[in-house]
Amino acid sequence: MGSFSIWHWLIVLLIVVMVFGTKKLKNMGSDLGGAVKGFKDGMRDGSTPDSNAATPPAGQVSNQANADKTTIDVEAKQKS
Fold first, then answer.
1. Domain coordinates of the chain in residue numbers?
2. Which of 16, 33, 34 lies closest to 25 in space, CA to CA?
3. 3-state DSSP assignment of residue 4
4. Residue 25 in contact with residue 17, Cβ under 8 Å?
5. pTM for this predicted structure
6. Which tens digits make up the pLDDT trace of 2-59?
7. What DSSP string describes 12-54?
C-alpha cells in the first residue's frame, strides 16, 4: 500500500485516456489552466490599491454629489 511504481501510473493514465479521450482531457486541461490564470489575476488585482476607485467607469452615474446632502427622516417630520 505504499507508493506506486511508474508502471502503475502508466496503466492508470492509459485507463483515464481510454475513458475520457484525449480531446476531453485537452479541454479539461485548458479550462483548468484558464481558471488558475483567472484566480492569479484576481488575487493580483485585489492586492494592489486601486487609484481609480473614486471615479466611476464611463457610462455609469455617480451618486457622490447626492451623498453630501443631509437626509430628512420622514417619520420624524410627521410626528412633530
1. 22-46
2. 16
3. coil
4. yes
5. 0.40
6. 688 999 999 999 998 899 888 888 898 899 999 999 999 988 877 655 555 556 566 6
7. HHHHHHHHH-HHHHHHHHHHHHHHHHHHHHHHHHHHS--TTSS
